[in-house]
Design brief:
single chain; mainly alpha; four-stranded mixed sheet
Length: about 425
């Protein structure tokens, strides 16, 4: 067996079983604490609600364990199992140009992968979410979303893949600089275009009608120098009972979006505090920092791909017989997460630090108790566990654990 094949299997095995172990720890920790509501929440969340959150989280994590093993098997199928070779050989029959063959192969792998994911998506939506009372999706809406997503994938994916492959084949040794520039431009374009052209294909966005709330929000935005194209309410309730709020867009095309489920459960003071948290991300330039970080990672990754695609062992070690730009791109995209899994805690830690900074900003702009009340309601309504395993949380969680976050805000409340 080739050396790189052994390295790939070793990293895949270590990463997979580390994640399985972390998930098992997470389940055990939640089970050990599911009978007792943490002190910070004892007067806010009932024992029944706490146990529901524990059961919901455990069910999701157990499903995640199964999916992790399935993903490992599928990755081995695509690579060492010859799946990519089979798809490539099928399209070679048509004797198209290398560019269009590459587009066909990549789009085929994406489509097949989506179809293979379909049973898990159906199970998650119509059994797991349904079981805990969160699913509002109908079969008709599910199919409609699926068809729209596939159509968008073809409309956007085919031109983008063609341009990337053309640059890889035509721009010489340093093609990856040109691809990086195109990819960054495409990413910025999608951030700008998503709220205006793509999101409305799936959801209805209505201007916020509550004038009292609108005035509070506009005053908050004005004193922090935040401009947007409007404040909108999204009909999230037609798909899920979960609530959320977010900023979307870029430059002058920014929008503020509230799920209707969130507005239904929070007071005006609490909504203002939640939005102040989101504005905190803007004031601390978290989005810009993440974009810069991702740009640097993408640049380094493409440079690495530029070197790897010249190495015969890269293809043979991953079960591919034909050396081509499109096969190098596919292999790299599929296998990079195997070798970068242990960078995940670093990214998660940075994200949690950003959340603390945004909470600190919100505590200056609004009463910290209002944000605490809003978060508790969201934890309750979304059935977020209050007792995650600390090690699992450090690997995966982009937000601080509930008790840690509430304690942080409570300290700010005392100071204020």
């Amino acid at each position: 067996m080739a050396t790189f094949t052994l390295i790939f299997i070793l990293f895949l095995s270590i990463g997979t079983f580390t994640q399985l172990w972390l998930k098992a720890r997470h389940i055990g920790y939640i089970q050990d604490h599911q009978q007792t509501v943490p002190d910070a929440f004892i007067d806010k969340i009932s024992s029944i609600e706490h146990q529901k959150a524990a059961n919901y989280t455990i069910a999701k994590v157990r499903f995640g364990q199964i999916m992790l093993l399935i993903e490992m098997v599928l990755l081995l199928f695509w690579t060492l199992g010859g799946g990519l070779n089979f798809v490539d050989q099928y399209w070679q029959i048509f004797a198209w140009s290398n560019l269009w063959t590459g587009v066909a192969v990549i789009m085929s792998v994406m489509l097949i992968s989506s179809l293979l994911d379909l049973p898990s998506n159906i199970y998650n939506t119509f059994y797991l979410e349904e079981r805990f009372g969160f699913n509002k999706m109908t079969p008709g809406l599910f199919i409609s979303d699926l068809l729209k997503s596939i159509l968008l994938t073809f409309l956007i994916g085919i031109p983008l893949i063609f341009i990337v492959l053309w640059l890889m084949e035509s721009m010489g040794q340093y093609w990856w600089i040109d691809v990086w520039a195109v990819w960054m431009g495409f990413s910025l374009l999608m951030i700008w275009a998503y709220p205006a052209f793509i999101a409305p294909l799936f959801n209805k966005f209505s201007p916020l009608e509550n004038q009292a709330l609108k005035q509070r929000i506009e005053a908050l935005l004005q004193r922090n120098g935040f401009t947007s194209q409007g404040i909108f309410v999204m009909d999230g309730s037609k798909r899920s009972g979960h609530g959320n709020a977010y900023f979307t867009g870029f430059g002058n095309n920014k929008r503020i979006v509230f799920f209707d489920t969130l507005l239904a459960g929070l007071t005006i003071d609490e909504v203002e505090a939640v939005l102040a948290h989101e504005v905190g991300h803007f004031k601390h330039k978290h989005i810009v920092k993440r974009m810069i970080w991702m740009a640097l990672l993408t640049f380094a990754s493409l440079a690495l791909l530029g070197w790897l695609m010249q190495q015969s062992w890269f293809y043979s070690g991953l079960g591919v017989s034909t050396h081509s730009t499109y096969m190098a791109l596919l292999l790299f995209t599929l296998c990079l997460p195997v070798f970068t899994f242990f960078l995940q805690p670093i990214m998660a830690r940075a994200s949690r630090q950003h959340e603390f900074e945004a909470d600190d900003f919100a505590a200056q702009q609004a009463n910290p108790q209002h944000l605490i009340h809003a978060l508790v309601k969201l934890y309750k309504e979304n059935a977020n566990t209050l007792t995650p395993d600390p090690l699992h949380s450090s690997f995966y969680d982009s937000h601080p654990p509930a008790p840690v976050r509430i304690a942080h805000l409570s300290a700010k409340s005392v100071i204020n």
